[in-house]
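Iron-containing alcohol dehydrogenase: structure, please.
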Amino acid sequence: MQNFNFKCPTEIVFGRGAEEQVADKLRAYGASRIFVIYGGGSVVKTGLLSKVERILLASGLAFQVMGGVQPNPRLSLVRQGVRMATAFHADFILAIGGGSVIDSAKAIAHGTANPGIDVWDFWSGRAKLTKSMPVASILTLAAAGSETSDSAVITNEETGKKAGLNTPFNRPAIAFMNPELTFTVPKKQLVCGSCDILMHTLERYFTSVKETNAFTDMVAEALMKNIIAQTKIAVDDQTNYDAMSEIMWCGSVSHCNFTELGRCKDFTCHKLGHELSGKFDVTHGASLTTIWPAWAKYVWQDDPERFATFAERIWNITTGTTAEKAKAGIEKTVEYFRSLDMPTNFTELGIGIQDKRSLEYLADMATAEDTKKLGNFHPLDKAAAIEIYQLANH
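Here you go.
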């Protein structure tokens, strides 16, 4: 086992009615003026927003509300939120929604805590984040794991750049997780979310670290097998509390860094997928299932034993040579994505076959015009990124 540091300070309030504790918990964290952010109309239609407002109002906590967060959350809305939260003198940010809302809340917290610095400067690297303000979330979609993660992703519409920021300041203070709040999520969002959870684990399972990390591997493998099994149940019955509970908790564990202890992140597929989302505004989970098969076919020969182990432990593929098992595991994963009607190439993603100029643009954006290499399992330069995009380009 390799050395590691691990800290996940987020308090989890999990189970039926978790959101009913929001006022008491926020007050215990010192909140008095709460800026509430949400996405589209779903939390309004379900009555969740009005329920939270009643709870906050009854507790005597001041609050202001802003909606409008979109998938692939926009920088322009974050900047608007910073202005509103600053004018309101907010001391706590509360996100009601999924990963896009929580990521936006994190960005608003950073911007509000640092007046005079444009929030995008933290994502572009022009400014270093040294302070923020606390964030809480009421989770309505199990997917991004943003409720426990140290990362947040924002899209700059002006440049078409979708960028992530990893910092301890991104860790939310508290997450309220009631699986019943996910019962009404559209089926497409459910399967996209489950694939995102699976990919968060895969991007830590395949890394440059070759030494044995037995317990970390067992945790990751159990999580992957569980999310695969529970998603099949949830697709047939989205009101199955046990299945939706398992999916929700897997999402939080998958992205709190617990499945990488003694390993590291690779996240090449995320970075390549971000550029698809930035250019074509495709769903994050769909971008990942599109890229992973191409990436895996490009890199598996770097460590066929690892891919064979994945095939054996996740898909029960026990016959054949190491190479045969490795390739069979990749194909089985592709079959699983397709069984959920998730895309595995550009045509299935809905963007069509791209020309050479488009592929070069995507690779330039991903590698900062060939000045940065992606990942560590098989570090990619611009040329390699183009090759992977081309493998998905059918």
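Notes: The chain has 16 helices and eight strands.
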